[in-house]
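Sequence, please.
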């Protein structure tokens, strides 16, 4: 068994001739602990916000979405598309159409992204759970209905209780523009609003309007064999990764198959950048805190100069003596990392279960308290970074030890 760790441990816990060394060592350990706990808390909060937003997106995003690699149209009678119906892990197959149109209500006009859906859309997504006014319906048996985002509804000044229709103006796809009769360049339709939804994401709330698939085909000049996307829901217990791979193999390179993460790739990429940039800033703070370890070891080396000469007399070479002080610095960092990790995890667990720290006054936000999600890889990465910087800080003074 190596003797260097035992000597380093004795140096750490034993009283020094200069009390300032104990104080600086304690400050070094405390600084490492505080920064470690802060890194774990910050990363866990970032994870919590990411999962909260992901849950919001999942209320309207399908588990898998198929779009053409080029162009906009999918032919529903394509033999490759028909193979989807033979896959046992797919529970729902729903063609959709998404196009931009102009909507008008009582003189207020605004562009909107219209999404045409079929009768399976309620089973495909959690649309019913986000209706905040009225109810979900795109066809009531007699009239076409629509459901729109809360921001879009506020912009045109409508709610689910209005009986006046919303007018839709969709440009004709296959006809030349008539400059003399601009009104003939559009397919128009009056439609009644059934409900208003809120995802609490502007890209949906401020632009989306859901209508029936037949109406979308009529407005945008698609026939019943055409769509712009196909959305899928898998059976319970099916492996998303496995099914996605099977679909990609069956459809080939002419189609793009996206899961929920890939449908919102830009958002997740930005979130990940924010998360690790914040962690990087804390690493710089940790780097500054590590200078305390350098000061502590430098003073300890001076304090133990007689011990160094004695060890040298007993046969210890310079590399062995350097390892003693290297272990000493690493122990300071390791204790700080351990204390900080335990503290950070406990604080996150308390926030996760009790929501101690509120967002605002806890009532005016989508989330009442800061969301927290502790992830083991993040904790391990923090520990690795802290221990690596601690070892680096210890190596700087230890390499200067002379017998």
């Amino acid at each position: 068994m190596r003797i260097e760790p035992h000597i380093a441990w004795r140096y750490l816990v034993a009283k020094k001739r200069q009390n300032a060394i104990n104080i600086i060592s304690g400050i070094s350990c405390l600084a490492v602990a505080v920064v470690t706990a802060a890194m774990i808390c910050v990363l866990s909060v970032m994870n919590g916000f990411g999962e909260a937003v992901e849950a919001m997106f999942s209320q309207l995003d399908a588990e898998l979405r198929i779009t053409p690699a080029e162009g906009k149209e999918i032919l529903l009678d394509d033999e490759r598309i028909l193979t989807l119906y033979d896959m046992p892990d797919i529970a729902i197959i729903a063609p959709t159409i998404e196009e931009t149109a102009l909507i008008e209500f009582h003189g207020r006009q605004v562009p909107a992204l219209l999404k045409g859906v079929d009768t399976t859309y309620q089973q495909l997504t959690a649309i019913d759970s986000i209706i905040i006014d009225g109810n979900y319906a795109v066809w009531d048996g007699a009239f076409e209905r629509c459901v729109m985002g809360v921001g879009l509804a506020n912009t045109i000044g409508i709610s689910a209780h209005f009986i006046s229709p919303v007018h839709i103006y969709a440009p004709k796809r296959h006809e030349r523009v008539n400059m003399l009769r601009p009104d003939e360049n559009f397919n128009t339709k009056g439609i009644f609003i059934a409900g208003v939804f809120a995802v609490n994401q502007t890209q949906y709330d401020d632009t989306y309007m859901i209508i029936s698939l037949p109406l979308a085909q009529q407005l945008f000049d698609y026939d019943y064999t055409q769509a712009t996307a196909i959305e899928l829901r898998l059976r319970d217990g099916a492996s998303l990764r496995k099914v996605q791979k099977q679909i990609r193999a069956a459809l080939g390179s002419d189609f793009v198959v996206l899961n929920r993460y890939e449908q919102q790739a830009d958002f997740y990429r930005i979130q990940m950048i924010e998360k690790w940039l914040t962690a990087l800033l804390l690493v710089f703070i940790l780097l500054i805190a590590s200078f305390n370890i350098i000061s502590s070891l430098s003073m300890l080396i001076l304090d133990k100069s007689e011990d160094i000469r004695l060890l040298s007399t007993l046969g210890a070479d310079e590399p062995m003596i350097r390892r003693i002080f290297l272990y000493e610095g690493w122990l300071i960092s390791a204790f700080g990392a351990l204390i900080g990790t335990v503290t950070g995890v406990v604080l996150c667990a308390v926030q996760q279960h009790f929501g101690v720290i509120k967002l605002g006054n806890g009532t005016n936000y989508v989330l009442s308290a800061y969301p927290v999600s502790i992830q083991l890889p993040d904790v391990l990465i923090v520990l690795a970074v802290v221990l690596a910087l601690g070892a680096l800080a210890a190596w700087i003074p230890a390499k200067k030890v002379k017998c």
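Residues 64-263 form one domain.
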